[in-house]
Amino acid sequence: MVIVSYSDAFKRQVRRLSRKYRRIRSDVQPLIDQLEAGEIPGDQIQGVGRTVYKVRIKNSDALRGKSGGYRIIYYLHTEGSVLLITIYSKTDQSDIDAAELVNIIRQEDNS
């Protein structure tokens, strides 16, 4: 079993998004279950210098499917540990910069 933890940035973003999208936690839960089961969904992001993946998940509140849903970025910290780095709604934000991801990972490594 894999341990899934959350960055401070991820927690803040879920709190902020939950004001607009009430079902965000239930939308994210299937991904957490997959990660805990040892699966590695999504596409690997190049240029970060770490093993980082981006996953598309549907937003039940937006009724647009995965393409208009959430993007979750996670980091394979160790073989038995995954860190959820960030989450954003594709309707609110088009993409995230690799430098921003590196910055969040460094902050978590230092805490």
Radius of gyration: 13 Å
What string, H for helix and E for strand, traces the elements in order? EHHEEEEH
- How many strands in all? 5
Distance between the termini: 24 Å
Portion in helices? 25-40%
Q: Could you tell me the strand content as a percent range?
A: 25-35%
Number of domains: 1
Could you give a short account of the major beta sheet? 5 strands, mixed
Structural class: alpha+beta
Q: Which CATH top level class fits?
A: Alpha Beta
Number of helices: 3
Strand arrangement, largest sheet?
1-5-4-3-2
The named CATH superfamily:
RelE-like
Do you know the CATH architecture? 2-Layer Sandwich
Descriptive account of the structure:
Helix content is 35%, strand content 27%. With 111 residues, it is of the alpha+beta class. It has one domain: YaeB-like fold (2-Layer Sandwich). A five-stranded mixed sheet has the order 1-5-4-3-2, sandwiched between helices. The mean pLDDT is 90.
Question: Which helices and strands appear, and what pairs or packs with what?
Answer:
Blueprint: E1 3-6, H1 8-20, H2 24-36, E2 43-44, E3 52-57, E4 70-78, E5 81-89, H3 98-110
Parallel strand pairs: 1-5
Antiparallel strand pairs: 2-3, 3-4, 4-5
